[in-house]
User: Fold this.
Amino acid sequence: MIYLFLCIALAFGAEIDVNTFSNYIEVSQEQVHIEWLLDLDEQYINATSQSIFRVNTNKLKKIDLDIYQLSIIAVYLSSSGNVLQHEIIKKGDQSLLQGDVLSIQLDRVYTRGEYIKLNIKYNLDSKGARALGFLTKEQTYSKTVPYLFSQCEDNNCRSIIPLQDTPSIKVFFTATVLVKDPRINVFMTGNKLYNMKFKLLNNYENLQALTLYQFELDIKIPAYLIGIIAGEVVEKSTGNGTYVIAEPHFIDEYAEELSDLPVYMNKMQEYIGPYIWGDYKIVILPASFPFGGMEHPLLTFASPTIIVGDKSGVGTAIHEIAHSWVGNTVTGRNWANFWINEGFCVFLERKILSRLNGLDSVKLDAINGNSSAFTSMQTFGLDNSFSSMHPNTTNRNPDEATSRVPYEKGYQLLTYLESLIKEEPFQQFLRDYIENFKFQSIDEDQLYQFLLSWVRKNKQEEAQRIIEEIQKVWKKWVYNPGLAPITIDVSTPLLADANNLAKAWIDGKGQAPEKANDFQQYKPNQKSVFLQYLIDNYKDVEAAVMTKMDEQYKLTFYKDQKTGYKWYRLVLLVKYDQALEGVHDFVSKVGVSSYLKVLYDLLGQNYNKQAYDWFEENKSFYHPVVVQAIEKILQKYPKKLIIE
Ligand SMILES: [Zn+2]
Assistant:
């Protein structure tokens, strides 16, 4: 079967997705509708999905879908109601990594061009649905009703909907969500409909008592872009079709911080072309949200860590806006081509940020990004494929490969290409790229071929030289692990200043250096570079330096969590015990996966007891994907028995 897939896939000249168990080449999902009855108190969902599939082969007898810990009740043809046989097939040790196969036996042999419409009745709960974060009402600010949010990327959508969970497949998505408590407001990917459009698939005894929400999206999306929040949330307009959504207590503060959303949107459109998705809504989630942001169309999610109070954290909002073009309109075909989403997105984000904050500030972002990418490479191993832009995720949960590597190496590649092609023509290239591949899922080779032919057509006498330069580095850049083959220029006086100040602190051995007060004037990205210098040289940082610096800058319990995170890394590396309560506070308040993974790794090494105690204490606060990741990290540092 795999051989057959390969033949068909190779005939198209495109990469297959190794992280789906579905037979998506033979039969492709075109449409997914879900009907969910939410019970947030019991953390339980009664669900039905209705999907339309198109047959792409002449002898289709079964449909294989991805599922993770779903309890499947029945599968039947939507038109006749005839029940279809199904079985759940386990693939070796993959059940807890990537899930199982829901294999559906069709009622006859189907041929190319036919359509099949299926309903699947199933249930899910907080134990199995690793895409969902369920918060009790006590974990919310107002403590009135529970809260639910999702995180389907990478391949966690299969834990909430049985489907072809691959970015190669894009579907029209619609939903009906029913809730028992009218105080619970629901938002999903897509437009909220104010007139009921979809007939209910099930009968509900107490229908009058339920509140019903419907959603529809008229552009096809891959499964990983499906998202939901439910809870006591409200939305507030920030002008020109942009909105902020949050718990009522925070809405004014957050809307104020994000009041420039229309500006970011305009700047982005000036650079890359028209925005096609409709309203732009951004949800600021509770602190358990595991990522900086997530780009569901019409329902971006963002961590509250982006709210700093001075608009200095809004780069994430700009990043998520950029995904509307790169990632959501043109999509990487599989998780090995994740950089096609993220590298382009970082490039657009920094293009807009350079117009808002200047090029030197963006260079600092690139330096910080590269240093976190390098930290991940060191953790993976410099010759590990996860340290490349094209990770091999066969038999792995692709979440394991998630790091800054594809973001930063992708950004660096595009910056290098821009330097070859020159700024204005490269902007045109990006616009042509979006136009050429819109609504498709592509891989690096399709992009490469398009790039070469674009250069040939548009750069005339320079074309041959540019093509040769690209050919020299492309495959190495994409496939080789470790740092990029060419270093882009990120030199800026802001870097030198921050490094000199950090060095002066180390050399001062507890005396504050002459320019110590410069730090207070730094933007968060320059503070980050400063702290990174100390992290890189932590063996030379004496305890007296930590004490004096903390006294002067008040870094323990710092408000900006990006700066706080770097400080606590340093605290754990140099074992500055006096700030340990700050670390405890941080890991109890911030649910961002990338921060927690690094801090728990250092805790496991240097503060074994606290690592286990604090993890146990905060387990219910962290999102399930983060709990799994930390458990895996702590396995490296077995719990030490302490006899008191
Ligand atoms: Zn992104």
Q: What stands out?
A: The mean pLDDT is 95. The pocket of zinc ion is lined by residues 319, 323, 342, 345 (CB under 6 Å).
